[in-house]
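USER: Fancy drafting a protein?

ASSISTANT:
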Amino acid sequence: MELAKSTYYADPKVTPLEKEVWEADLRGKIEGIREEFPRTGYRMLLAHLKRNGFKIGERKLRSFIKKFNLQFKAKRRFVNTTDSNHNHEVHPNLIEELSITGINQVWTADITYIRINNGFVYLAVILDLYSRMVIGWAISKRIDGKLALSALEMAIKRRKPTGGVIHHSDRGVQYLCGEYVAMLDQHGFHKSCSRKGNPYDNSWTESFMKTFKCDEVYMFNYETYLDVVERTPQFIEEVYNKKRPHSALNYLTPNEFENKIKVDYQDQNQVGPAMKL
């Protein structure tokens, strides 16, 4: 047609009033999404908008966000939660280059801190690596083996694994102490640890922790222990597991993804689409 590429992709002719209405509508939708998911970046915004029937391309959305200064930068804080200075047995990394084909194949575990006015509160979580669903969690003012064990007990109670699940964690003493290892052995888990000083070996759980901090803790400015115990379960169970689309799951929520594979494969022990780590 002998048209320039820029002409072909140019916006259709609209009046200034129509453009103003469209922009106001888009800003309203973005602000509505950010009320529930404050730290949402442009990729996740795009997924939310498409799920709600709003048609816009990635390039146009990024330009729009920049034009109206809708970017968000989270505050960053750091506290070391991994104590690897101990004499407990450290296990090899069993999931490096592993293809994940179903739920209850690999569980990953980690601990993070939550800063409050008079100190810290700690959150331990366990994710099913295939669906990215948080299947176990626990909150405590102490970062010890009991905290990690409580999260594991919740995950076992919910999933009722029959044995052979790979449990992957860092080298922290909370995951390698006698009581925790005994629980893993009792339920037939294969034990796996990250390499020394390598956070990328458990990047999936680290990613959840970052989402939790940015979308919840920093935005709602947790100040007391009561804030933590009241808001954290609601974020995990109602927002992250049920409402927040995940890019690794083709922008389904963990809950939607697990429901889909149950419909597609009926039996959770059957092999699903492989997910290469």
User: Anything to note?
Assistant: The chain has a mean pLDDT of 83. Residues 5-67 form one domain.
